[in-house]
């Protein structure tokens, strides 16, 4: 019914059913994981009016027991979600429906899906550090990408005195790229959504 994906690892579709409406994926070496994607396989939909609350559990360094945190939810209308888990803090768990379901391994975490009523899902508040898809993060990525591009292109710059003629090569003045980049930054500062137009 569910799948779990972590970058650089095989897709997991072998959720352990710990109760009729609770499913758990084991996630070894969670310290090296930044994001996790939970999705429906498309084979079995949620019953009408139901969805899945997605939780993340990792061993509490103090007690050794599992600490569960609500990440968000998936539904038939929104069958997948990506969550940032690298910013979650140990010891900041909350109420969860999984009871004592735990891997018992100090280096393993778990991703849990609890089938619940949609009315209940929309009222739950996930941990704020789990959200990843915001416009701000996209804009930050774009800014960093353009900085990197400008720095990379500038590393090849040579003065006209040091240029060797090459009829097969086209040269673009670095001042042209710099003007475009400064214009882009100005437009982003004035209207962060200008790129949608």
Automatic annotation (TrEMBL):
Gene Ontology CC terms, in alphabetical order: cytosol; nucleus
Residue ranges of domain Hikeshi-like N-terminal in the record: 6-130
Subcellular location, principal: cytoplasm
Keyword field contains Protein transport: yes
Subcellular location: Cytoplasm; Cytoplasm, Cytosol; Nucleus
Annotated GO MF terms: Hsp70 protein binding; nuclear import signal receptor activity
Keyword DNA repair appears in the UniProt entry: no
Domain of life according to the entry: Eukaryota
InterPro entries given in the database record: Hikeshi-like_C (IPR048364), Hikeshi-like_N (IPR008493), OPI10 (IPR031318)
Ranges for domain Hikeshi-like C-terminal: 136-197
Pfam families (UniProt xref): Hikeshi-like_C, Hikeshi-like_N
GO biological process, one term: cellular response to heat
Keywords annotated in UniProt: Cytoplasm, Nucleus, Protein transport, Transport
Function summary: Acts as a specific nuclear import carrier for HSP70 proteins following heat-shock stress: acts by mediating the nucleoporin-dependent translocation of ATP-bound HSP70 proteins into the nucleus. HSP70 proteins import is required to protect cells from heat shock damages. Does not translocate ADP-bound HSP70 proteins into the nucleus.
Sequence similarity: Belongs to the OPI10 family.
Subunit structure: Forms an asymmetric homodimer; required for binding and nuclear import of HSP70 proteins. Interacts with ATP-bound HSP70 proteins.
Official protein name in the record: Protein Hikeshi
Lineage: Eukaryota, Metazoa, Chordata, Craniata, Vertebrata
Gene designation: HIKESHI
């Amino acid at each position: 019914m569910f799948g779990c994906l972590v970058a650089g690892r095989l897709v997991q579709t072998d959720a352990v059913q710990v109760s009729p409406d609770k499913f758990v994926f084991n996630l070894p070496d969670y310290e090296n994981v930044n994001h996790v994607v939970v999705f429906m396989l498309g084979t079995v939909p949620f019953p009408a009016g139901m969805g899945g609350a997605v939780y993340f559990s990792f061993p509490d360094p103090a007690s050794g027991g599992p600490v569960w945190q609500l990440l968000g939810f998936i539904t038939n209308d929104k069958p997948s979600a990506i969550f940032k888990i690298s910013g979650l803090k140990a010891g900041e768990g909350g109420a969860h429906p999984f009871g004592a379901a735990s891997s018992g391994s100090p280096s393993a975490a778990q991703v849990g899906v609890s089938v619940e009523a949609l009315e209940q899902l929309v009222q739950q508040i996930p941990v704020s550090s789990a959200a990843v898809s915001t416009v701000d993060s996209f804009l930050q990525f774009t800014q960093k990408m353009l900085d990197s591009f400008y720095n990379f292109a500038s590393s090849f710059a040579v003065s006209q005195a040091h240029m060797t003629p090459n009829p097969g090569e086209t040269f673009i003045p670095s001042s042209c790229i710099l003007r475009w980049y400064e214009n882009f930054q100005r437009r982003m500062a004035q209207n962060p959504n200008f790129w949608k137009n």
